[in-house]
Design goal:
Length: 282
């Protein structure tokens, strides 16, 4: 009898030791899965506890949960800077009481623009009288500056038609604020960090910190334009084109980044062909 009890005890110990060893092997083999199961179980338990607590609490407005948050950001919202030259109404915050919409008012144009391009609208629906007046101004500009453009062409190799078309467009036939106040006919900006007095002045065409060059006379502006194209490496490929290839020059200027207007090349080409400016390239 005593021997049977000992055999039974030995069998129980063996079974226990075998189960322990097998469990250890399983844990070693599947430790990662075991860890994941434990983490998931913990998260479920915590979420249930959080839900129960929230059901028993009073709802709090989102913006009052962060007293240190920037109040200005909450009121104005996230807006990109300098995306428009027109004044825009400030948006109403979500937590503010919505007021009845005011009557639409006409947008006010920024008075400090270097050029409004009012004479260069290329509007096909213009009345004959308006179109005739624009053409008169364009031809007067060409007549005044054609000789300068041809001089620059002979000295630098820039087609006179391109110089005249850019001058017409960038100066709004010489009537832009930039042309009348700065004698700047080509929208040339100033990037100097140490300007002397009278070297440049501020306009707001692209941002409120746009500074454009000032010139003593229009001729200086034309020469500066020639030097800009000739000395800047980004325009080097243009000088491999023929002087008669005004279309290639127009597209090259746009590709090189002279202007951000996507239709810049088209406008130059249309200007040249409408006014027969390519005759000055001969």
């Amino acid at each position: 009898m005593h021997q049977k009890i000992q055999e039974l005890q030995s069998l129980v110990q063996y079974k226990f030791q075998h189960a322990k060893t097998h469990s250890t092997e399983l844990i070693q083999q599947y430790w990662f899965k075991t860890l994941l199961i434990g983490i998931v179980g913990y998260m479920v338990l915590q979420k249930d506890l959080s839900i129960n607590l929230d059901l028993n609490s009073v709802a709090t407005p989102y913006y009052s949960q962060s007293p240190t948050a920037d109040a200005t950001d909450r009121e104005n919202g996230a807006r990109p800077m300098n995306t428009s030259l027109l004044n825009k109404a400030r948006p109403v915050a979500n937590h503010q009481e919505t007021r009845p919409a005011a009557k639409a008012t006409k947008a006010v144009q920024d008075p400090n623009l270097a050029n409004t391009f009012s004479n260069m609208s290329f509007d096909d629906d213009e009345k004959a009288k308006e179109r005739a007046e624009k053409r008169r101004k364009q031809l007067a500009y060409v007549d005044r500056y054609a000789d300068i453009a041809k001089t620059e062409m002979r000295k630098f190799g820039i087609p006179a038609s391109i110089t005249l078309a850019q001058g017409l467009l960038e100066s709004n036939v010489g009537e832009s604020r930039l042309a009348t106040k700065n004698n700047n006919h080509f929208g040339i900006k100033c990037f100097s960090r140490s300007c002397k007095k009278g070297h440049c002045s501020n306009f707001t065409d692209d941002s409120h910190k746009d500074f454009f060059r000032k010139y003593g006379n229009s001729w200086d502006s034309f020469r500066s334009h020639s030097n800009l194209l000739k000395l800047n490496k980004r325009y080097a490929s243009l000088f491999k084109l023929k002087k008669s290839d005004y279309k290639g020059w127009a597209h090259g200027l746009k590709s090189a980044g002279y202007a951000t207007d996507k239709r810049y090349a088209y406008k130059l080409i249309r200007m040249i062909e409408d006014l027969d400016l390519h005759k000055y390239d001969r």
